[in-house]
Amino acid sequence: MNMSCLRRKLPALLLTALLSGIGFQITSHADEIADLNAKARAAYARNDYPTAIACFDRLLQLGDHNAYLGRGMAHLHKGEFDLALADLNEAVRLYPSADTYEARGYAWSQKGDGAHAINDFSEAIKRNPRAGAAYEARAEELIIFKQTEAAMADLHNAVLLLTGTTNSDHILCKAFLMLGLEYENQGSFVPALANYSKCLALDPQLYLAHLNRGRIYYAQGQFANAIADYQAAVRLNPADAGGYNRLGWLLAVCSDPKVRDGRQALANAHKACELTGWKEPVCLKTYAAAAAETGNFPEAVKWQTQAITLGLKGKSLTDAQARLELYRHNQPYHDPVPAK
Question: Is pLDDT of 194 > 50?
Answer without folding.
Answer: yes
